[in-house]
Amino acid sequence: MNYIIQTHQLTKHYAGKPVINQVSMNIKEGEIYGFLGPNGAGKTTLMKMLLNLVKPTSGDISIQEQPIMASSYTYLKDIGSLIEYPIFYEELTAQENLKMHCAYMGYKDQNHIKKVLDIVGLQQIERKKVKEFSLGMRQRLAIGRAIVAKPKVLILDEPINGLDPIGIKEVRELLVMLKQQYKMTILISSHIVSEIESIADTIGVLNDGELMEEISMHSLRTKQQATIEMVVSDTKKAKRLLEEDFNANVQIMDARTLIIQQVHKKTSTITKHLIMHDVDVDEVETLHQSLEDYFVKMINGRDQYDSFN
Ligand code: ATP
Description:
This protein is an alpha/beta fold and 309 residues long. It contains ten helices and 15 strands. Helices cover 34% and strands 27% of the residues. It has two domains: 3-215, P-loop containing nucleotide triphosphate hydrolases (Rossmann fold); 225-287, Alpha-Beta Plaits (2-Layer Sandwich).
């Protein structure tokens, strides 16, 4: 497996307290990695460490298989980023801002600027100064600036913030296009699951500085599909049968109810199996939990965070 970004037990303390705690994350080349977590979880801090804007307290980072040290900077040429609130030259136009950025990055292909402005939907505003831009326009320009030098990796901290629904859809489509056509690897953070679940290949869930889960969307969907709630006459016997015979993950919820996960059998097969072994099945329900519910439960199970939204 080719990982383009890896961290190993990455930790950052502020005032002696961990804000990022022993995070080991693995981002595959060419994927969209959705970095989820409530406000204050530490997403921005971790992204800043990847960009060498914040020095880790301990742990390692490697990008394109190169260890990142305090003095590393050449690797940044291959990374486009948008962190927190983008700052621009307010008296200049979008095009002029991108020109300045290309000059700074040593990127020569100036013709590309017009194409990027088209891609991010900022065409026909040649005369407008950035100080006259709406929040959505600024966000689009920030994404344009992040991609203008054709980076291999894009690191975007909540890039969908401040966009209207059409803008959100356009940014999603843009990121998928960048992945497919330009083979970019994209790390995108969000505190709203639904914003990125349709485009992410892998999800990393950060809470209170800890990476609670790192899972491919494919595995996550399989895991979700297979959640069944059953009311049976003998929960202990049913649990044993399903675990031993179907390798299922079974939780006893109360005297009559089971939650069954990761069982790759039809509900009818499970029911028949139990009945054949003298366990009555009174009710069966397939649970369709949204991804949002799944993460909120995961987070709330651990501490008092309200929710992602
Ligand atoms: P948000 O979505 O609200 O931006 P986040 O997940 O990006 O949240 P961070 O901005 O990384 O979270 O902040 C994580 C924690 O680290 C917060 O409690 C924040 O107050 C703290 N923190 C961040 N930067 C500093 C700093 N320079 N000094 C002290 N504490 C900091």
